[in-house]
Structure formats: structure tokens, C-alpha cells
Amino acid sequence: GIELITQGNVEGAIALFEQAATLAPGLAAAHYNLGLAYRQKQQLQAAASSFWQATQADPTFTLAYVNLGAALLEGGNLDQAQSYLERGIELEPELGLARYNMGLLQRRQGNWRAALAAMDLAIAYSPTAPEPQYQVGLMYQEQGKYDLARIAFERAIALDNRYPEAHYNLGVTLVRLDELETAVAEFSQAFAHAPN
């Protein structure tokens, strides 16, 4: 199944992961991989169900809780998402992905202070991941704190120079700071890395 995923055959992988989960219902990895494949196809309910099955097969499977919380968050079920993300953090407090998803949840709930604190922990525990820096930039941008947004977007770009959304939002921020020439250069970078 994993080989099919790497080849881009998600449907084929789903069929194999479903077969594995049926043949070995206690195999947490089969349910987890099935959840990842469903999530890749934006089938959030099926993904959540598979991640939940993985947590039942192995109650200490941290990534299953974190991905279950993320799938529920994407589906708009914030209360349940929070419960599963909290369980993931309880199992592995220094997992950056868990802190990142908790930050996304808290941002959706409008709790900026908690969201920023969670993203700060995500940055500390996953220092090479650009996404937490990018999300911090978005939060500062939404609050009109453009100098802080600029710093966060620049940090995200330093971690991944081919991050079109970070270049684009840095451009938007620079427009707000009345740095139009530099903003145009960032928009150009964004379009160069995401021509569609």
C-alpha cells in the first residue's frame, strides 16, 4: 500500500490498506495508513474512522490521535478534535505536529494567545518545519501586526524558499508596510513556485 502511495495510486493503496485492516483488525498501522490515504483523498469521515480504529488497536499510538484530531478539525468538529489532540499531547508532549494542530484549532476558536503559544512550541519541537512559522505570520497579519508577520513569513521562507504561500503573504504584508518594490518581488517568487 505504501509503495502505491509513493507511485500516486491512492485508490489502489486504499484497497490494500482496507484488505490489511480487515485481515488484521488489531494492526494499528493498517488502520493508520488507511486513514492517511483517505485524508489524502479528502475523505475526512473515512479518515477519522480509520484513525479512531488505530487508536483502539493501540491506545498509545500518538500519531493516530494527532491525525484523528486534525481530520476532525478539517471537518469542523472542534470539540472532538481538541479532545484527541490533547490526548496526543498527553502521550508525547514534545511532538511538534501535535502542537501545530492544537495551534490551528485554537486559532479557529479565536484564542490567539493560546494559538501563538502552541505554535511557539511547534516551532521549538519541529525547528525545521516552515508551517508553524507561516501560521504565526498569518495570525499576526490578521491582527494587523505587520512587522511581526513579516518576521514570521521570512523565517518560514528561510526554512523553505519554495513556499509560495509564505512568499505571497509576505508580499501582502509588505504592501501593508508600504514596501511595494519588495512586495512585488515576493509576489513574483510566489507565482514562480506555484504557477497555477
Radius of gyration: 19 Å
Low-confidence region ranges: none
For the termini, the CA-CA separation is: 30 Å
How much helix, percentage-wise, in residues? Answer: over 70%
Give a short synopsis of this structure:
The chain contains twelve helices and no strands. The protein has helices at 2-6, 10-23, 28-40, 44-57, 62-74, 78-91, 96-108, 112-125, 130-142, 146-159, 164-176, 180-193.
Task: Please characterize this protein's 3D structure.
The structure is a single chain. The protein is an all-alpha fold and 196 residues long. The chain is 79% helix and 0% strand. The chain contains twelve helices and no strands. The longest helix is centred in the N-terminal third of the chain and has 14 residues. The protein starts with a helix and ends with a helix. The mean pLDDT is 96.
Secondary-structure blueprint:
Elements: H1 2-6, H2 10-23, H3 28-40, H4 44-57, H5 62-74, H6 78-91, H7 96-108, H8 112-125, H9 130-142, H10 146-159, H11 164-176, H12 180-193
Helix pairs in contact: 2-3, 3-4, 3-5, 4-5, 5-6, 5-7, 6-7, 7-8, 8-9, 9-10, 9-11, 10-11, 11-12
Overview features:
globular; mainly alpha
